[in-house]
Amino acid sequence: MIAPKLWWDDGALAAVAAGEQTHVFAAGDHVADAIRLAVAHPEVVLSLVLAEPVPVPDDVVPLLAQVVVPTLVLASAPSSDADLTAAQKLAGEIDNGVFVVIDGAPRPVHTERRESFAEWSASFVAIAEGLAARDGRLLTPPTPLIEGALR
């Protein structure tokens, strides 16, 4: 059984507070809240998927180095001069951070390029589950896909 994938504003906080292992998705201003949650509950947050992040507040910047869960940062680049600074900073300062740019996509990437966003995030979640299973952090039994990947 794969852990739930919940958006910040669709119950991620409640699930994590209840001790349910969760892949936390957040966009825009909610990215800072998701980072705080991952730092406070690394045993329950299995991964972060952060879409179109805005610059995080000053109190969150030092927390980036404390994020221990795999983190995917996705941003769209509608033009070649698109400002990707906030997304690059997040991915660069999180040890397990991965940065993906969807070139030519209008913002926000998670609604304007749903297929690309879904493929990247689904693949990342599967990798994060595999890592958690390998490290003994996954509380639910791994799916056959993950078990096959770990052999």
TrEMBL record:
InterPro entries: AB_hydrolase_fold. This is Uncharacterized protein. The lineage of its organism: Bacteria, Bacillati, Actinomycetota, Actinomycetes, Mycobacteriales.
